[in-house]
Amino acid sequence: MAQAEIGVFGGSGFYSLLDDVEEVVVETPFGPPSDSYVIGELGGKRVAFLPRHGRKHHLPPHKINYRANVWGMKELGVTKIFGPCASGSLKREVGLGHFVVCDQFVDRTTGRIDTFYDGPITTHVSSADPYCPILRKVLVDKGRELGITMHEQGTVVVIQGPRFSTRAESRWFSSNGWEVINMTAYPEGYLARELELCYANISLITDYDVGVADDPDLPPVSHHDVVKVFDANNARLRELLFAAIPTLDHPRDCPCATALTGARG
């Protein structure tokens, strides 16, 4: 099977710019991943890409097989994963087109299978600091070099989907001081930690969430505006990943690589 060093979950448009692309089907103990993996060359690195919603975007957030997706990356040899997500802002100062490299998550999903460890050995992996600090720093530094407005930390609240929040829920999330809302950041990142993989979330802000949009000082967001920001974000995301990935030569001396140490009873 073809091998890769770096993994990317996300939408379409990224892998088309990789060199010497090949598609790989990975079987996992947890069922099929969202699609076949696309592996190619970028800046001397072998990169595996997987559209988490499937290539035809047929999988809603609550139906994605997150365990299979992450396990498949590990099977391919990946040790470092980027997880970009289109997201809503919960704060006025986190504006449209900004990137938030989150350092925390709040899980508001229900019913998603979110662990590889169902026994017989009890395993408790810490999620106190759930994202790789080294990957996060690389993203922030490279993003700022490219002129992207980067927030170097933030909390993403992950809702179940496919419905959006009510105004009351949105105002509640915002009042807690959280910055970002989306439907796919959990359990993807935590599952990567359970397999001792480095993982960084990149939240790409396309709109203000409904409770924040009640602010009379903020312009109302239209579908046209969201699509425009989304397309611009995708272009900047490609620039960011193409700048960051070739630099990933650091040793894995981060907490991710030893996440299972002391985790088993």
Query: How many domains make up the 3D coordinates?
Result: 1
Q: How does the overall form come out from the CA principal axes? A: globular
- Indicate the proportion of strand residues: 15-25%
> Can you identify the CATH class?
Alpha Beta
Euclidean distance between termini CA atoms: 34 Å
Give the beta-strand count.
11
CATH topology: Rossmann fold
Salient structural properties:
265 residues; alpha/beta; Rossmann fold
Q: What is the strand and helix layout of this fold?
A:
Blueprint: E1 6-10, E2 19-24, E3 37-42, E4 45-51, H1 66-75, E5 80-89, E6 99-100, E7 104-108, H2 133-145, E8 150-151, E9 155-159, H3 167-175, E10 180-182, H4 185-194, E11 198-208, H5 223-244
Parallel strand pairs: 1-4, 1-5, 5-11, 6-8, 7-9, 9-10
Antiparallel strand pairs: 2-3, 3-4, 5-10, 6-11
Molecular structure report:
It is a single chain. The chain is α/β, with parallel strands linked by helices. It has one domain: 3-Layer(aba) Sandwich (Rossmann fold). The protein is 24% helix and 23% strand. The protein has five helices and eleven strands; from the N terminus they run ββββαβββαββαβαβα. It has helices at 66-75, 133-145, 167-175, 185-194, 223-244, and strands at 6-10, 19-24, 37-42, 45-51, 80-89, 99-100, 104-108, 150-151, 155-159, 180-182, 198-208. Strands 1, 2, 3, 4, 5, 6, 7, 8, 9, 10 and 11 form an eleven-stranded mixed sheet that branches. Strand 9, helix 3 and strand 10 (180-182) form a beta-alpha-beta unit. Helix 1 (66-75) crosses helix 4 and helix 2 packs across helix 5 (223-244). The longest helix has 22 residues, at 223-244. The mean pLDDT is 92.
